[in-house]
Design brief:
This protein has a single domain, classed as Transcription Regulator spoIIAA (2-Layer Sandwich), CATH 3.30.750.24. The relative contact order is 0.16. The chain is globular. It is 41% helix and 30% strand. The chain is α/β, with parallel strands linked by helices. It has a five-stranded mixed beta sheet. The C terminus is likely disordered. The N and C termini lie far apart (32 Å).
């Protein structure tokens, strides 16, 4: 199950249940349409996700790179310890910024634009 909402200039994708390969393609397409519409700050809210197919995480990495290529970003929020372990096992935890809550992930975008003017 996939739901989209916008908070300021940040696009939030709420996912629930299991993320299998088909669901990951839906997420990929959703992020693709965000990029086409110049909505480059994306949070994938995983708070209600029980399981993720580890083979499909590579699709997410491809989208992360696509967003970063156009000065955007994809951040993850609400991962359970179980999901975090899946990301660690496949070595993907080092690529993604992950936040405890959706609010923290949204605030992190504001932090990125403050300070000395350098990008992270």
């Amino acid at each position: 199950m996939l739901a989209r909402k916008a908070i300021q200039d940040i696009s939030v994708i709420d996912v629930s249940g299991d993320i299998d390969f088909r669901e990951m393609i839906r997420i990929k397409d959703t992020i693709g349409s965000f990029i086409e519409h110049d909505r480059l700050k994306v949070v994938l809210n995983l708070r209600s996700v029980d399981h993720i197919n580890y083979l499909s995480i590579g699709v997410l990495l491809e989208r992360l790179k696509a967003l970063r290529n156009v000065n955007g970003d994809l951040k993850l929020s609400g991962m359970s310890p179980f999901l975090r372990d899946i990301f660690k096992v496949v070595g993907m935890d080092r690529f993604f910024e992950e936040y405890h809550s959706l609010e923290d992930a949204i605030e992190s975008f504001e932090d990125d634009w403050e300070g000395d003017g350098t990008s992270h």
